[in-house]
Amino acid sequence: MVIDLDRCTGCAACEVACKSENNLATVSPEQAEMGRAMSWMKVISEVEGEFPNSTLQFFPRPCMHCDNPPCVKVCPVSATYLGEDGIVGQIYARCIGCRYCANACPYTVKYFNWYGPEWSESELQHLNPDVSVRPKGVIEKCTFCHHRLQKAKEDARAEGRELREEDFQPACAEICPTRAIIFGDLDDPTHRVATLKDDPRSMRLMEELGTEPKVYYLRSRA
Amino acid sequence: MRPEVRDRLARMHPDERALLRPLVETTRTFYIFAAILGVVVLWGLFAYYQQMRYGLGRTGMNRPAYWGIYIISFVFFIGISHAGTLISAILRVCKAEWRRSITRSAELITVLVIGFGAIQPVFDLGRPDRLLNIFFHAHLTSPLLWDVLSIGLYFMSCTIYLYVPLLPDLALIRDSGIKAPWLYRILAGGYQDTPKQRAVLERVIGALSVAVIPIAISVHTIIGWIFAMTLRPMWHSTIFGPYFVMGAIYSGIAAILVAMVVLRRVYRLEQYFKDIHFDYLGQMLLLFSLLWLYFTFAEYLTAFYGAEPAVMRTFWAKVSGPFAVPFWAMVAGCFVIPFGLMARKATRTPGGTLVAGIAVVIGMWLERYNIVVPTSVNPRWELESIGHYLPSWVELSILAASFAGFILLYMVATKFVPIVSIWEIKEGREHSAQEVSRRVSEYLPDTPVLTTVGDSK
After folding, report:
1. Distance (Å, rounded) from C-alpha B204 to C-alpha A217?
2. What integer is the mean pLDDT of B320-340?
3. A157 at the B interface (CB within 8 A)?
4. Shortest Cα–Cα distance, B84 to chain A (Å)
5. What is the pTM for the complete model shown?
């Protein structure tokens, strides 16, 4: 995934699309105040400079899907794992809820189900049947909409062709009105991300930790 | 006390009489205290029921304060458990004769507190029903799994290490018939205290006291590694393994001292827990207060000097930020108070060590708080918002219940086993005095070298 920060307007459509695509539970305002809101994709804002010469910078932050994920190493039951396709997955049915992975993640992208999931009446009618809902007491996080990849793979196989870039797009990339979120296979030279990741504006979060994140940010100012 | 028990007790050796009395004589104060502690435990169970029913939301934990009181207590209680094993094993290996009256009470702390430590991460689990997944889906690279294995091994070896030296005393109680004969027939097995059995027993104790030392060290090292293996600021540090072991022994000594002062008073054991024991253990506490200062200073200086921004945020949060009160209270409890009291012989008394011991126990609990919480709430990414953590009544109730449960279990245990090892005291009286003087003479040159003035010409 490549996120072009120069294009991001901070509209948070990605957050909303992600929540509805992945059946994220609704957390009450009081609980959110306690720091229990869930948002697999989160638009974090940063004020740069002193007023009046200040600018607002937005950082949409999904899971980095590290190639060397610190969360996977520490999980005592292999409930979080690095899949063959490079996506860091979660096995909700196996997770014991120790939250060690959450503490090990330098990007704090893991969310815990402090209570059982709840949705408002209107949301209940729109739950996505392709995504399992998480019970109380387990960790969850961005999966790059892995369910869409599975579906796209099946479709491609049925039609007897290779997977194309447009076949598989996560909800956040699909919804982004300024096309700031670009998704594809970093290893496939025909995909846009493979070129964009080598853009001079490209950088990754906390690259120095050696986690090898698969999310690249494009940013003209260093 | 029934008259026949009183008669039997009266006919026994004075050591046996003094040390077996608590097993057959229980005061009203004991029952009152036990009842109060029992209520606290029940209240804790109710709190846990609330958490089980509604979820970990009933705690004060959140994102990014993923860990709280339970993990703090886990580190704390397992730390206390280092009291017995290490102190008693090290003193046995060193042939320190003054250990004889304190090993039992220390070993008993170890075994009884491990369970309360080991259960804490289970309280912390979102899905305790899936606990066995740790074995079914064991993932060997997880320090949490290393921990489960090492604590398991530690618990087993400490239980054996408590039980084996108990055998002669259990056999004594069985043969005296003063209490529940059926129970002690089972517990004491076929031990008859024949010279051959005694020799085997001493050999096994000797081997065990060597074996439990590395196991005990591994346990707290790995607990330190749980934190150190992550990339979190002020957790990711090589000092954590040794630092945790040192802290564990430190809080363990403090716990023994507190227990000894209380036992001495309630069971009138002034003849067994003498001033010299408090003086010696007080010196050990003094040594560890200095070690604590050294380790802590080394840890904080390294962090401060490197001055990585992510580390500094946690550093300042502890030293002068929102965690300044627990931080400086920890310094007072772990260094200022115990050092001030234990550096002077005049205050290395039961009273002085009690104050110092309580200060260290509280200080070491705070130390674990200062490790777990400030790092948790300060995520490495500076744009991520800083968290906050306030424990809920559920967590505090479970904390209180864990303390109460441990004290209650310890109290009850003193009603079933002599809290001072009777046979070791007797052995000390009968053999050790000669053995020690023989040993001392072995240290010296075989024959005095006689030289006369004037011979050296």
Report:
1. 63
2. 96
3. no
4. 29
5. 0.93
